[in-house]
Amino acid sequence: MRNSESSKQVLLEVRNLQAGYEVKKGFVGAVDDVSFCLHKGEFLGIAGESGCGKSTLAFAIMNLLRDNARIRSGEIDFQGRLVSALSGEGFNKIRWVNLSMVFQSAMNALNPVLKVGEQLCDAIHAHRSISAQKAKERAQQMLQLVDIGPERYDSYPHQLSGGMKQRVMIAMALVLEPQLVIMDEPTTALDVVVQRTIIEKIQELQQQLDFSVIFITHDLSLLVEISDRLAIMYAGKIIEEGPAQDVFSHPLHPYTHGLMNAFPSLSGPIRRMGGIEGKPPDLLDPPKGCRFFPRCSQVMDRCANTYPPEILFEGDHRVACHLYQGKGDIQNG
Amino acid sequence: MLGDLWKLFLENKKALAGLLILLFFVGVALFAPWIAPYDPRGNKLVDQEVLEESRGRKQTVERTQLDEFTEERIYDQTFTTRTKETTVKFPLKSPPTSKHLLGTTHSGQDIFSQVVWGTRVSLSVGLVTGLFTTLVALTLALSAGYFGGRVDEVISLFTNVFLVIPSLPLMIVIAAYITVRGVVPIILILGLTSWPWPTRLLRSQVLSLKNRDFVRVAASLGEKPGFIIFREILPNMISLVMASFFQSTMAAIIGEATLEFIGLGNVSVVSWGTLLYWAQTNGALLSGAWWWFLPPGICIALIGTSFALMNFAIDEISNPKLRKR
Questions:
Q1: Average pLDDT, stretch A219-240?
Q2: pLDDT of residue A46 exceeding 90
Q3: Would you call A69 helix, strand, or coil by DSSP?
Q4: Phi then psi for A285, rounded to 5 degrees?
Q5: Residue of A nearest to B209 (CA)
Q6: Nearest CB partner across the interface for A105, out of B213, B235, B238
Q7: Structure confidence at residue A333 as a pLDDT band (50, 70, 90)
Q8: Which residue in B213, B215, B321 has the most chain A C-beta atoms within 10 A of its own C-beta, making it the best mutation to test that interface?
Q9: Measuring CA to CA, which residue among B159, B246, B240 is closest to residue B200?
Q10: Is the confidence at residue B20, as pLDDT, over 80?
Q11: What is the pLDDT of residue A192?
Q12: Which residues from B are below 8 Å from A110, CB to CB?
């Protein structure tokens, strides 16, 4: 728990964000009424199954939604500035300078015909007017920072391993020293050993350079280890959020319970893995009440009709579930 | 960076072979007047030798005394030149001899000289048309593929309409109506009918590249469209662009030969196509006069080989993964 004191400065605040995809049949609310706060230097993990809106949330924050995707309502504050109201041009000025992103697949995020060093230089030159020599030095310095020798400046992407490519992408995200880096499943395509070194590298860099991270993955066990705070998303909503250890050891929401039961622990007795019955709802037409009620083991009558209010527990641990009505430490309906 | 690529190109054996063949033909085209032994249209050699020049007597016609010191006279004088003119008529339909390396045509023109001069027309028609086609196709493809939406719809509509028009019949129809002499109409006809196919080909590649993650990264970095198109997208499709350039150049050379061969070009122009036309109309194929119809064909095939070789090499060079190390 490095940075969970609430006295910390707020870096990013998302309020009632609704974003999704305009399709013929209507609006797919991939992100529905999501609010959360990210403090300076904090490592926030967002977990959830495929299609729960994690990536849409990331792209919405980065103002990178494309084609039929759009933000319907809600506000995003970054460094005290209402960035969701910025124009495309205006956002271009802060994207990558103040907040950057590591994309899902490093294999495709590097241009195959350009040397990796040149691509880092392009990123620098996109926002800073410095000499080519200076940019090259900076690029080599960044490569070194992610444990890639500066002689790799002249390598083409195919000459690097998957892990190296992902580290180049991390260097690219950090090259302009942003305050926030959003990582959208940066380790999904890598094997566990490489995954581990990358995660360690990210943590090391975070301590060194003091930026905040939003780490998006479906790999909950990984998140528990590395995050300060953990948010669990289900069907476009954040259903539980709190300090990572808290969420891990005392999961409140039945869905979080289910998730924690679904992965094996390395120590402890061997047991049959529990899953969660059913499948996530259709986001075109989500259930009226709690999104999880059709699959919930502790379903009550009101779950089907009213969306549960958010209940705040001690240590900034909040959950949206009818089970805890009246049991919270602070009620914020 | 371009210097590096050029070096890689020269280090590649295939590329070097292809380039040498092309340079050979370009050299032949440029130095045609010095290489060709005879005038490609003449059928005889005329030699004049002055034997004697005689000057007639001066005869005063008019005389004026202007003043005390000045006098004006007007003369008549005749010059006679005796000249010896030797005319050597070339043999008609002669097989190759030491004087005529590739024999002569039905009207006695030297075929070797015609092949040499023909290189000039055929090659320039091919290269100009190829360049024109590729530039048009690339511009349309990049705009349609990158900007999408309305731009894409309009460009694709025109491309599709032109694509279904059969090009050879259209070429024939246009050629029949154009009255301008020379090769310019042929270039225009070939250029007009050859752009839709490469446009479609390149457009689909631009579309595919535009949706790759690295283009997305570049866009999220706030790079301008020009930068994304020319630095991120274009370098990834160089081999395709060059392939379509070679292909359209080749198609233009063959198209020119075709138009001339069926007599729709200008038969007074000396090109590989007209060579084949005259060979055909005079029964060179029937009489087995291989020296007449084979050389232009071989030249066309050699140019094709050269392009194919360079294309292989460009494929290898423009894609770092295929580069030999």
A1: 88
A2: yes
A3: strand
A4: -140, 70
A5: A111
A6: B213
A7: very low
A8: B213
A9: B159
A10: yes
A11: 82
A12: 214
Question: Closest to B235 (Cβ–Cβ): which among A95, A108, A113?
Answer: A113
Phi first, then psi: what are they for A67, rounded to 5°? 50, -115
Stretch A312-327: mean pLDDT: 84
Q: Which residues does residue B55 pair with via DSSP β-bridges, in sequence order?
A: B79
Chain A residues lying within 8 Å of B223, measured CB to CB? 122, 126
For residues B284-308, average pLDDT: 89
| Predicted ipTM > 0.85 | no
The pLDDT tens digits of the residues spanning B78-117 come to: 888 889 988 888 888 888 888 888 888 888 888 898 899 9
pTM for the full predicted model: 0.79
Facing B320 at nearest CB: one of A62, A101, A158: A158
Cβ distance A122 to B217 less than 8 Å, yes or no, reads no
For residue A95, what is the DSSP state? B
Q: In degrees rounded to 5, what are phi and psi of residue B283? A: 65, 30
Residues A209/A174, Cβ–Cβ less than 8 Å: yes
A281-286: long-range pairs with CB below 8 Å, 24+: A281/A235, A283/A20, A283/A28, A283/A29, A283/A30, A283/A51, A283/A53, A283/A235, A283/A236, A284/A23, A284/A25, A284/A26, A284/A27, A284/A28, A285/A26, A286/A29, A286/A32, A286/A235, A286/A236
For A49-89, what is each residue's pLDDT tens digit? 888 888 899 999 988 887 788 888 889 999 888 888 888 88
pLDDT tens for residues B232-275? Answer: 999 899 889 999 999 999 999 998 888 888 887 777 888 888 88
Contact A122 B321 (CB under 8 A): no
B242-274 burial, b for 16+ CB within 10 Å, e for fewer?
bbbbbbbbbbbbbbbbbbbbbebbbeebbbbbb
Residue A197 touches chain B, beta carbons under 8 Å: no
In angstroms, what separates the C-alpha of B307 from chain A's closest C-alpha? 23
Tell me whether A43 touches chain B (CB under 8 Å).
no
Cα–Cα distance, B280 to B275 (Å, whole number): 9
Nearest-CA distance B149 → chain A (Å): 11
A1: pLDDT confidence band, cut at 50, 70 and 90?
A: very low
Residue of A nearest to B210 (CA): A111
- Tell me whether A95 touches chain B (CB under 8 Å): yes
Between CA A40 and CA A180 the distance in angstroms is 8
Contacts of A155 in chain B (CB under 8 A): none
